[in-house]
Amino acid sequence: MRTIPIFAGLRGRELGRLIQSLYQRTYQKGESLFNQGDIGRALFILESGQIALLRQDNGLENKIYTVKPGEFFGEMALLEERPRTASARAEEISRLYLLYRTELDDLVHSAPRIAAVIFRHLAERLSGRLRERQDTRLAETLLSRAR
Fold it and tell me: What is the rounded CA–CA span in Å between residue 111 and residue 92?
């Protein structure tokens, strides 16, 4: 768990406390973790296996990313309970840890430093995504002007 970026910076006891807040689950090959449009309530951390993130567009299912061990996904569910923008399905037997929003809310009160570390990493990840989108849009604008 110490190597997972969202938990970097946690001390030994803090990491132990956080692990107590996680739920472990094994998904079989082909099993759905959640579907696009479901309300998000948990962050997923992949310990072993492989997860496909899929998006439905115009009736077609497209794989947008393959999650590998040590990576996490579904982090927006920790910030807001909104519909998922993609589906997730196990491509092989996969062992995951789930951090539910309700557990993070409990950590805010019982272990605020743990919650602060998690929120800081979420903010960094979201900021990076915004920068990537802005860079992509800027590049598209410059290309269209050059034509």
Answer: 35
Nearest Cα neighbor of 88 from 104, 72, 100 is 72
Q: E-strand spans in the chain?
A: 23-27, 32-34, 42-48, 51-57, 60-67, 72-73, 87-90, 94-100
Q: Which CATH number fits domain 5-146: 2.60.120.10, 2.30.110.10, 3.20.20.60, 3.30.70.20?
A: 2.60.120.10
pLDDT, tens digit, 9 for 90 and up, residues 98-136: 999 999 999 999 999 999 999 998 888 888 878 887 877
Q: Would you tell me how many other CB atoms lie within 10 Å of the CB of residue 88?
A: 25
- Any idea which residue has 């956080």 for tokens? 18
Q: Output the pTM of the full model.
A: 0.84
Spatial separation of the C-alpha atoms in residues 73 and 60, rounded to whole Å: 22
| H/E element, 122 | helix 112-146
